[in-house]
Write a structure and sequence with these properties.
Strand content: 15-25%
Order of helices and strands: HHHHEEEEEE
Oligomer: single chain
Strand order of the largest sheet: 1-4-5
Shape: elongated
Largest sheet: 3 strands, antiparallel
Radius of gyration: 58 Å
Number of helices: 4
Distance between the termini: 183 Å
Helix content: 55-70%
Number of strands: 6
């Protein structure tokens, strides 16, 4: 009798142990399943992110290019305006330089003009013509010196110098037995150079050797 009861108790214990093991396995399986489901759900959620369509990509690129074009256009317009202002300024400066190129020279000539005015006034009451002549010579000397020193004006053409067709303009020729080569017999108008550039040829009479 006792043996039967013991067997029933042992059987019941084994059954309960088996039940617990099954329940534990079931819970573990459920946990694993839930974990897999969660991972799968997360992956699905990530995969459900809708990628940009080709049209959206092209639209974004077009917008970016339009912005870049607008910026370049603004830069171009700004530079064009700056260049136009620079061009106008250069034109004005060039015109001013042309209009007032002789301002310094004219300013330096004023002293000589004033001296001529004084000489003319003195001539009205002068009794000695030599005084007037000396005054004119002094003005001439001062004027020539100023032009030579400040403006590099060079006067040339003196009697007896050798004739140079590049510098002298012969208005006549006359044979001279004493002449061994063409020389300046008489200077009608002096020649002038600005540094090395001739601005007026000397007008001269030329002596040539007698044939």
């Amino acid at each position: 009798m006792l043996n039967e009861e013991n067997q029933e108790v042992e059987a019941q214990t084994v059954s309960e142990s088996n039940q617990k093991a099954e329940n534990q396995n079931a819970e573990e399986q459920c946990t694993a399943t839930n974990s897999e489901c969660a991972d799968e759900q997360c992956e699905n959620e990530q995969n459900t992110e809708v990628p940009q369509s080709q049209e959206e990509i092209l639209t974004a690129k077009v917008a970016s290019l339009e912005a870049e074009v607008a910026d370049l256009k603004e830069q171009l317009l700004r530079r064009a305006a700056d260049f136009d202002n620079y061009r106008k300024r250069m034109i004005k400066e060039k015109q001013d330089a042309y209009d007032y190129a002789n301002a310094n020279l004219l300013g330096d000539l004023l002293d000589s003009l004033d001296n001529f005015d004084r000489t003319i006034e003195a001539a009205n009451s002068a009794t000695d013509p030599k005084v007037i002549a000396d005054g004119v010579k002094m003005i001439n000397k001062s004027l020539v010196k100023m032009l030579e020193d400040k403006y590099n004006l060079v006067c040339y053409g003196k009697e007896g110098e050798e004739f140079n067709p590049e510098e002298h303009e012969a208005i006549g020729r006359m044979e001279d037995e004493k002449a061994k080569k063409e020389t300046l017999k008489q200077v009608y108008l002096k020649g002038y150079k600005l540094k090395d550039k001739i601005i007026r040829n000397a007008k001269v009479m030329v002596s040539v050797p007698k044939a």
